[in-house]
Amino acid sequence: MADIQTYSHDAGWKHTVLRGLLYLVLILFAAYYLFPLIVMIATSLKSLDEIREGSLISLPRVVTFDAWNYAWNEACVGVECTGIKIYFWNSVKMAIPAVLISTFLGAINGYALTKWRFKGANIVFALLLFGCFIPFQVVLLPMSQVLGKLGLASSTPGLVLVHVVYGLCFTTLFFRNYYVSIPDELVKAATIDGAGFFTIFWRIILPISTPIIVVSVIWQFTQIWNDFLFGASFASGDNAPMTVALNNIVNTTTGVKQYNVDMAAALLTGLPTLLVYVLAGKYFVRGLTAGSVKG
Amino acid sequence: MASLTLDKVRKAFGPVEVLKEINLAIDDGEFLVLVGPSGCGKSTLLNLIAGLESATDGEIRIGDRVINDVHPKDRNIAMVFQSYALYPNMTVRKNITFGLEIRGVSNQERDKAVADVAKLLQIEALLDRKPSQLSGGQRQRVAMGRALVRDPDIFLFDEPLSNLDAKLRVDMRTEIKKLHQRLGSTIVYVTHDQIEAMTLASRIAVMKDGILQQFDTPQNIYERPNNMFVAGFIGSPSMNFINATLSEDNGKLAVTIPRDGDPIVLPLFEAPESYHGYVGKDVVFGIRPEALTHKRTGSDEPGSQYVNFESKVEVIEPTGADTMTVIEIAGKEIVARVRPDRQPTPGESMTFSADMSQISLFDPDTELRI
Predict the structure, then answer these.
(1) Beta bridge pairs of residue B157
(2) CA dist., res. B9 & res. B23, Å (int)
(3) What are the φ and ψ backbone dihedral angles of A281, each rounded to 5 degrees?
(4) A92 touching B, CB under 8 A?
(5) B240-362: which CATH topology?
(6) The pTM is what?
(7) pLDDT (tens digit, 9 = 90+) per residue, B299-340?
(8) How many domains does chain A have?
(9) How far apart are alpha carbons A213 and A284 in whole angstroms?
(10) Is B170 within 8 Å of chain A by CB?
(11) Is A207 at the interface with chain B, CB within 8 A?
């Protein structure tokens, strides 16, 4: 302590200034990123009159949830004026099965690729990995043909299938990297104990996979919920997911542009992913590092 | 419980042969230790017995039953792993009973089996904890409990003590030995630690590069090692190897060690028939540190097994019980084991006694015992 104190006066002054600068920069960046969100929220809580009179960045004088209510229940998507709520449920019906199925399949893939190393396991993994790099646009046409042949065109199950196929590469990668760090002896011990492939998976491997399951669920949910391209291409009309409906609300308004409704609808669309991050973000970071560092 | 036989067992991974024609047979209730440096194939051999890997060639039998194509779970074996491999999501109780549960043993019997094993290993207080809440030694016990509860024909141990600290390792070693004496079970135990091998085994299999070097009782391996590798691997500090020639003087064989000045001539105490072909030729003279000591009483009498010689002392390393005394002969450092009260000072000359009844001679080319 004594050593430090002899020159602490000078260093302390410098330290304070540098800290101050650092925080200033951080606050500026935070403000820069938060500003659009604040404008959106403020706008969504204003009445149309107020938007027209006031400035873009001013806070609402009178807070009203009318726009949110309207967006949810009454907004016109295309010619139907039923609000965004049915599309919200479309998205839920698409995202939840797709997330669960792709996560589950990823877990089985990762388990088989690491703990039951069959001949050619590395090639299978490399091919799956390759899938991560294929852009969405490339598969649009072949995918629509496949969906057509399967009789799943323009339906929610079709969308689920597309997202499962696409998400599989990522979930497999996650689980494979996580399972690489789990000692093989665990599987050997269970084998000698008499457990088979699926018993070991259900009873031993899956229960210790919580961190990577959380990562996979968050990642997949974000991807699938926010997807627009597949939604717009493979589901139409009443089956469209929320992102497509949002686009239609914003683009089909005739007459006065209802900025507050647009903003409320956009916020409603973004809310579920935001919620997932707030609730499980902690595990997301933890699980990502657990998988990647040791893998 | 049952005997175990390995008949010409081979294992190859692609073109790489990791086990070459291993022949081993132990009786019911024996404690076999597979020992060797890392990469010698001992763990692979254990995995073959366990059925976690399949033999490329040869036959593995438990009792009279050939088990090459039998699934691990049907071989009636239990295995303790180096990392313990406890299921992290289950309590100690669940860990121990998992195998029974899979085999459809009733709840009642499971509870009784756990209680018995927990009592035997003194882990009753730990039964409801998770593995992460246990210390290394406790985990080790649980891992053993998981094996014991099944009452298998053969126990397999894969370096079970190497993750423990030195003191605990010695304690657990004794406990494993006690357990073996009490249960009389057949055990195959893999280790790279020759002291573990010597203390635990009823028979040791020394391996190197996938080849079985020697398979014998600990005492035989120690006293009559088959080759220089076994001689150097077993025993600590390890055996001294000195280049020498075998000479004959008046019908009596002697080992002559050249050095600056007069050579050391050590008349042999016993001369088996096999030695005679090497008269006048180079040999490697092997002597353990404890056979090389300070001057013994009676060593001057004719017909004594002890032979005296003078040498300068280079370094001394006291260990408490004995003092390791390093001398230099023919440019090689040789360790002698001297009683602390006879301990010399480095630099001075001293008379040493070699116990010629406890020596080995090796062929310098084949490195095999003569």
Answers:
(1) B80, B189
(2) 7
(3) -55, -40
(4) no
(5) OB fold (Dihydrolipoamide Acetyltransferase, E2P) (2.40.50)
(6) 0.80
(7) 777 778 888 888 889 999 998 889 999 998 878 889 999 998
(8) 1
(9) 9
(10) no
(11) yes
